[in-house]
Description:
The protein is α/β, with parallel strands linked by helices. It has two domains: about 150 residues, Rossmann fold (3-Layer(aba) Sandwich); about 110 residues, 2-Layer Sandwich (Hypothetical Protein, Haloacid Dehalogenase-like Hydrolase, Chain: A, domain 2), CATH 3.30.1240.10. The chain has eleven helices and 14 strands. The longest helix has 12 residues.
Amino acid sequence: MKAIQIVAFDLDGTLLDSDKNISxxxxxxxxxxxxxxxxxxxxxxxxxxxxxxRIRELPGVRYAITTNGGAIVDLETGxxxxxxxxxxxxxxxxxxxxxxxxxxxxPYIGGRAVTEERCMAQLHHYGLSEAMQTMVHDTxxxxxxxxxxxxxxxxxxxxxxxxxxxxxxxxxLRCRLEQESGxxxxxxxxxxxxxxxxxxxxxxxxxxxxxxxGVDREATMAVGDGENDVSMIRMAGxxxxxxxxxxxxxxxxxxxxxxxxxxGVAAVIERLIG
Length: 274
């Protein structure tokens, strides 16, 4: 195995435990990576503003791949190094389709998510845990109508996140969306779908950043648990699935580590990097 120079890790279900906390063991493991000169890269479906302060302040964390590869950001300068977004027109079309179902559909623009007043007022209706509700409050601005907001902003949309009031609607909405061209459809949780431009994937984002930093693909390691992590697990030199990962993810992984509640990120770093 080539010496690892980039460790890319998902947040929810991977680095963070079920209560959305990061353990001291995981912090120590990532700090050791930084001491060895390894780039430590949060790679998440969250927007830039959704990367927790404690993770931003970890040694070695300078770059983040956000919104499933919709953006790559220099956290030190705030500069967006790369963006791969849905056009405003395409995003409006997709949001209009979601309105056929009882869902909370939130567009992510410029590193921040927006949601509608009616959704923010009833987060429990969409099956969100207390920890998830806290995260939503911290990472979203509230508007009356997301479709009009996107239309009037005229800006590219990094991602659209969809939460379901009735999980039975997930399959038919996914089937409907799969008829649309130019988009990537993934999921990070059992009750969500995530829509990106077809070229905005965590894997593509990781390869772009590796090239930007002059790092060979074989010197990258990616750790994740959800469908939106498959691309980077397949493309990294070493792909690692959490033990709590979907079987779909595990089948592409080179390594399986412990669960996110058992410090699985630290465990694989300790074993493969030291």
